[in-house]
Specification:
By secondary structure, the protein is α/β, with parallel strands linked by helices. It is 38% helix and 15% strand. Bound molecules: glutamic acid.
Amino acid sequence: MSFVTRFAPSPTGPLHLGHAYSAWIAHDMARTHGGRFLLRFEDTDLERSKPEYIAQIIEDLTWLGVTWDEDPTFQSQSLDVYNQSLESLISRDLTYPCRCSRKEIAAALSAPQEGVPHHLYPQICKHRSMSDRQNGDAIRLHMDRACKALGDFNLNFHEMGDINCGIYSIDKNTLMRDVGDIVIGRKDIQTAAYFMASAVDDIRQGITHVVRGVDLFEFTQVQVLLLHLLGHRAPLYHHHKLIRDDAGKRLAKRDDARAISKYRADGYSPSDIKMLVGLV
Ligand code: GLU
């Protein structure tokens, strides 16, 4: 079986220890299996993505000894591709337009409706139809209709990671209860949400194994659903553990103190970083 994987950073900040760990795991798996390793910049957030972060990420990965087998790709150059997938779900009546602001959603959530779990979108615009779509509306997945469109199909994916190794079933009740009517088309720049772009690209690039942190496990379930609705077979997934700070908190981009470039400037070597993330 061929093995193609990728590292897909959003260039909205510097790489930290958690990214180094993720990139190494994916890269080393590809090399062990005689497969291919791709680098994809998930830069659909046009405001927060910065060319200087792209340059820094390339420099850091190179310093860490990570090599990729094709020129890096940039999602900002393929927005029309993701929008086609979005349009295909729209044309099948699986979506509705939403004009709610965060403030309106927060207000509605503080006065919960019967039957709608308190952490989900409170369904204010659910009655609207796409023919009533206006400029600046977000597009939400109508989860009830999406689940119905699956029919009796048993949605599942192969998990090869540290957690839940085996076939992982996605229960429709869980999707309705825990995920709800998520935004799949953004209102600000009128393009598909990033997890949709990422799922579509995994198919387009022939990714066989998606290697990512366990913090994205919920996204994986949504992505598998979207891929299935779009008529694609999901790749295999490997969710790995997260690198945490001393207080046990997941590292985030804003944790500049853990930026690879800082360690580098402080005289650490790539092997020191490997040791820090527990890879030796
Ligand atoms: N772009 C995401 C991030 O930087 C990763 C997405 C993925 O692995 O699919 O967190």
